[in-house]
Amino acid sequence: MAATPPHMQALDHLIHALEESLNDRDWDRLAELNSEVRATVEPVMAQLESGELDAELVRERLARLQTFCDAASAGASEARSEAEQALKGVNRNRSAARAYQNVSTNRPK
Question: Global pTM?
Fold first, then answer.
């Protein structure tokens, strides 16, 4: 069995790290790793175009990366929705606290 070329290893490592970060819901790490995608994929594509890499192996990795991107997009939408609901809760609590403060300060003595 042939050794995995270094650029393919880098792509495999990146995909694995992206998947772990998504599973951990580590959005900061995801953003950091996302910035590495292009720099990691470009050398793989160059080697593919020069015939140094098997097209099927590259296709499998890129399909896995696309699956990750779809899952990350769904996860980000879910996180955004959760944050929106939390903010609405904070606003409701703030309004309730303000109403209580108004009632307690305007009470006849």
Answer: 0.67
CB 62 within 8 A of CB 12: no
Contact 7, 44 (CB under 8 A): yes
- In angstroms, rounded to a whole number, what is the distance separating the alpha carbons of residues 72 and 26? 11
Is residue 17 within 8 A of residue 33, CB to CB? The reply is yes
Residue 90 token pair:
């904070």
Are the CB atoms for 67 and 18 separated by under 8 Å? Answer: no
- Angle at 24 (CA atoms; ends 21, 28), nearest 5 degrees: 55
E strands, the chain, in order: none
Separation of alpha carbons 108 and 40, rounded Å: 70
- Among 52, 9, 13, 60, which Cα is nearest to 33's? 13
Instruction: Give the tens place of pLDDT for each residue, 35-79.
Output: 899 999 999 999 999 999 999 999 999 999 988 888 877 777 777
Q: What does DSSP assign to residue 109?
A: -
